[in-house]
Amino acid sequence: MGALFPAISSAMLSAQTNALAMHGRNLFIGITQANVDRESHGRSSVWPKNQNKEDGEGEDIAFNAYTGSQADDYFDDLFDMQNYGTQSWSPYVDVDIKFVSGAGVSAYKGSKTLKGCVAWKVASDITDDMPDIIPVLVSRNISTDNFVTESTKETLSQTKQEATDTAYTQPFGNKASVIIHKGGAAGVYKGRYQSLADFYDKQTVTFVEGSRIEYLKPSNR
To answer: 215 with 165: CB under 8 angstroms?
Structure first.
């Protein structure tokens, strides 16, 4: 049994990371489809906004600004949690709420908020001209402090393992991470391959001058 334990642990980790990657991919598809629908009505993207929020007032998510530790607020708005379970419920995405959770992060429990159930950090102010390799959904256990957020940053030779975010014990700790890229690709990165060079597919990332993104963090409670 002792000899089998490493193989069993590895298989369990692979199953969990692949399942969370599927969740993230489905969440990404839902957001992308919402953006396609909105474009035909002259509405802007439902990816969270900070500095680039739409001018004006109203109930549309484009008028909301998110920053710092507001990933919960963003997903609450995206899924219209305030009206969840009522006839007025009108989420922006047509996907199951369960996709915000997974791999040890508690599933939605039936309240009016997703706080404590969000497995993802999410990038704000994503624009069409940004490279497809940009991570837009990141499993919350990996630190995004060194991620590319503005201007040009060399990632090609940065193979040092990125730090885990000690605020979150789930999912995966320092064993693995899951990233959904702007182009739609889902990446599972284990152990020593959790580096900027791997996250950015060994590319140098360039933003249009003045562009900047921020990674919103969820609550861990």
So the answer is: no
Residue located via tokens 């530790």: 69
pLDDT of 143 higher than 60: yes
- Give yes or no for a contact between 13 and 175, defined as CB atoms under 8 angstroms apart: yes
Q: What is the DSSP string of 48-96?
A: --STTPPSS-SSSGGG----SS-HHHHHHHHTTGGGTTSTT---SS-S-
DSSP code, position 6: H
- Residue 71: name the closest of 193, 150, 168 by CA: 168
Core vs surface per residue 8-39: b (16+ CB within 10 A) or e:
eeeeebeebbeebbebbbbbbbbbbebbeebe
Q: Average of pLDDT values for 30-55?
A: 89
Mean pLDDT (the chain) is 90
Per-residue model confidence as pLDDT tens digits over 76-109: 999 999 999 899 999 999 999 999 999 989 999 8
Q: What is the DSSP string of 134-186?
A: SEEEEETTB--TTS--BSEE--TT--SPPPB-TT---S-TTSEEEEEETTS-E
Q: What's the DSSP call for residue 125?
A: S
Please say whether the beta carbons of 142 and 217 come within 8 A.
Answer: no
